[in-house]
TrEMBL record, chain A:
Organism from which the protein derives: Microbacterium pumilum
Free-text remark on how the cofactor is bound: Binds 1 heme b (iron(II)-protoporphyrin IX) group non-covalently per subunit.
Compartments reported by the entry: Cell envelope
Entry protein name: Deferrochelatase
First-level EC class: oxidoreductase
Main localization, broad class: other
Automatic annotation (TrEMBL), chain B:
Protein name listed in UniProt: Peptidase M75 family protein
Highest classification ranks of the organism: Bacteria, Bacillati, Actinomycetota, Actinomycetes, Micrococcales
Keyword Ribosomal protein: no
Family stated for the protein in its record: Belongs to the EfeM/EfeO family.
Presence of the UniProt keyword Signal in the record: yes
InterPro entries xrefs: EfeM/EfeO_iron_uptake, EfeO_Cupredoxin, Imelysin-like, Imelysin-like_EfeO/Algp7, Imelysin_sf, Iron_uptake_EfeM/EfeO
Species per Swiss-Prot/TrEMBL record: Microbacterium pumilum
Subcellular location, principal: periplasm
UniProt xrefs under PANTHER family: IRON UPTAKE SYSTEM COMPONENT EFEO
Amino acid sequence: MSPDPGGVSRRGLLGLAIGAGAAGLAIGAGAGATAGVAVGRARAETAAAVHPFFGGHQSGITTPVQDRLHFASFDMMARTDRDDLVSLLQDWTYAAARMTQGLDVSVSGAVGGSPEAPPDDTGEALGLPASSLTITFGFGPTLFELDGVDRYGIAAQRPSTLEQLPAFVGDDLDPNASGGDLCIQACADDPQVAVHAIRNLSRIAFGRARLRWSQLGFGRTSRTTTAQQTPRNLFGFKDGTRNILSDDTAALDEHVWVAASDTPAWMAGGSYLVARKIAMLIETWDRVRLSEQNDIIGRTKGEGAPLSGGDEYTEPDFAAADTTGAPVIPVDSHVRLAHPDANEGTRMLRRGYNFVDGNNDLGRLDAGLFFLSYQRDPGQFIRVQRSLSTDVMSEYIRHVRSGLWAIPPGAAPGSYVGAGLLS
Amino acid sequence: MTTHRTLGVLAVAGVAALVLAGCVAKRDVAATGALAVTSTDSACEVSDSSATSGTLSFDVSNRGDQISEFYLLAEDGLRIVGEAENIAPGASRTLTVVAQPGEYFTLCKPGMVGEGVGKAGFSVAGDRVEATGDDAEQNQQAVDLYAAFVKDQVEQLLPAVETFVTAYESGDDDAAKTQFPNVRAYYERIEPIAESLGDLDPRIDFREVDAVADGLDWTGFHRIEKDLWVPAEDALNADGASAWQDWAPSTPQERAAFGDQLIADVQELYDYVHSADFQTALESQGAAGLSNGAIALLDEVATGKISGEEDWWSGSDLWDFAANVEGSKMAFSLVQPFAESKGDEGGALVEQIDSGYADLEAALAVHGSLADGFVDYNELTDADKRELTDLINALAEPLSQLTVTVLG
């Protein structure tokens, strides 16, 4: 009996797809192009809920921030070689290109394969639309060199600034749940869709890469378009009022995208991602009186306006003083220390998420901010984070996980994410 | 009538242990240029210790007082390349196999239980023999070889359990503790077979928490284990309850009852795997059944062993772990030629599974071996457990594609 064409194994299928080059990977030209093969999930979706996977930049950076996150960090497994890394990135690209269009991870998917084999797709996203899913891949410093070993022959192409972030005041990092050779940021409007993506990509990686740590997030804590309202973090304050927006191409080119004139050349169109898991001491914060909360942040809790006056979008006046001559926006407030004016004009694109991972043994909420920032150079984050060393908000937060990844440019149809580095 | 079967060629470069091919002669074969084997109660003499690859015939004469068996084992001493069964005293039978170049062992098993006697090396030189025969024949051979493997394991399990129980019942706890993990290995290699028999596996191998949850009288290996490794007064069971809640060390009478029960249950398992029902059950599942068995054993490892829940008091989970992996690999090796006959995709899958076993075995070997013993499970670090888990995932994922590839 010849196998049902829909029952082709995932690995076999992936091999074929890559071998066929452009023809096999001609997904992502847009939702319309895939409508013919889409079953169920794609039917109900609107164009706005589907983001193209292929393009000059990876999606998931300037894409309007979705409500849900599943972030995962991976290590390559022992005894893997360059071919394993390339095939993994090809397989991930293939699967991500499909899933972001609202399709199953392979053609046979969750229910179209042989009843004698586990389905290619785990199935929990069946019937759900694409839900704005974006999948963004990154390369950690250890991928290029681990304990002095150039495992994949790419050490010479490591960006000089891609290294372990320096220690910052107040760090309480878990080294086993920080860093990683590879990272995947999956954002969607539906948590089930984001989790489905990471789960299936983890499964595809078995034997080549292993999950190192992961994080769920909800409730975006910044905006990337003018259409989006400024959301609130778990301290109850608006977060991301002054974020770089997706239509501000000049700011994006200056602060977020690696330029063609930057080195290394393969990073042109890419960016650098810093992820920091910041635990918030919720119970303590909630006992702080409102005026002090406002002073710590430097903005009002209600409007989000700077303490120097105006509304949310009014520029803070750091020179403003009260009748005693003291600054209206305290010198150790978060807004002042994080502001470009205090950091030689340094800006970043943020797209962090709130998290609550249940509670700890003391009955306190295990909650906080999963901070994600994209910048043209890791030095931008380092500059601002050092500036925050005197931030009074530090008393209420702990940085518990950290990682830095090079985010390569987007892939062209028929190619794969990271091809510029590895081909 | 002469039945002559050949089995697909399956050696893979770099995986020397998998030089395994053969067939089981269900009927006597008129041999030409055959090797002569003489089985007695204490010896197993083979007329030559080497041969050239191709069809080999072993004429086995039983000169002993008990019914005997003859085995040709693969290089690992575990996998059965071929066997001649039920040779009555004074009778002769012929085993015909298609042997590939490689190292083997010959072995007789007078009385049909125990480890056997006269185990000796046997070399096959020459060129590889190419596969012939259709799927149906290959399927039958794979099933027959797996049945032989299961029977052999239970044949070794039964006397090992008897010796173990004797030590336990007589209060020789040191001897019983030493034997415990090794006795279990015979069982763990074929666990899915016992599990298919309804209440037999619960009686033989249930953990205390499962017996309590199922409302069963707790018996079997783990009941005895707790008598041998008596928990401290403040120790906790796997579910967090006090180890001494509803439990006390067994009296000599209770030990006798638990011990005799275990022997009776293993005897029941022995009777089953030597019955026509067992053969029929295996045949009805065919190669897919073996393939699924290989996966089931790895799932055992992934769910029970890696969490350290199985041997809560003895800490001998790694023995079970290794035996599960061996049993899984045995079943896989029989299905392997089917997968390889399915073209490049099948070949690539086999290669992936082979390296998966190799990586897992190498990681396990860091902690010991079945022959020399393993470290106590509690000595594993979280990183050790994590590595083993990752390697199980790496192996189990391609293994889960084996059945459909074989059937495809």
